[in-house]
Amino acid sequence: MDGKPVVLINAFEVPVGDDEAFLSGWQRARDFLSTQPGYLGVVLHRSLAGDAEFRFVNVAHWASREDFLAAVGQPEFRDTTFPWPFHAALYAVVASDAADAELERDETRVGAG
């Protein structure tokens, strides 16, 4: 799987009322990560149910596992505090529907470069 595109899926436990503070922290992290080699993009989702355990879910695309690990290993990222519990894992795309076909082609092209 080395050198192939990966997807970071990160679910956050953000209490109701903390949205603005969370979004500000998320944007700072995104601003830093977007400058790192291998970063392909991110989409942040907010639950429509106010009582959802994971009110925010981040889905980020990276050119490779190695690029992602290098980025989050940077002192500027590693030394930041983020008070909300999160549950993150890297995934490989194993199947997609037509809506994801363009993204999958783009990831393959970037990952092959």
Description:
The protein has four helices and four strands, in the order E-H-E-E-H-H-E-H. It has a four-stranded antiparallel beta sheet. The longest helix is centred in the first third of the chain and has 15 residues, at 19-33. The protein is of the alpha+beta class and 113 residues long. It has helices at 19-33, 65-72, 75-78, 98-112; strands spanning 6-12, 39-46, 56-62, 86-91.
Beta-strand percentage range: 15-25%
How many extended strands? 4
Write the H/E string, N to C: EHEEHHEH
The rounded distance between the terminal residues' Cα atoms is 16 Å
Discrete helix count: 4
Describe the strand arrangement of the main beta sheet, using strand numbers: 2-3-1-4
Backbone CA Rg: 15 Å
In helices, the fraction of residues equals 25-40%
Quote the average pLDDT: 87
Précis, in short:
This protein is an alpha+beta fold and 113 residues long. The protein is 37% helix and 25% strand.
Descriptive keywords:
single chain, 4 helices, 4 strands, disordered C terminus
List the helices and strands and how they pair.
Elements (H helix, E strand, L loop, with lengths): L5 E7 L6 H15 L5 E8 L9 E7 L2 H8 L2 H4 L7 E6 L6 H15 L1
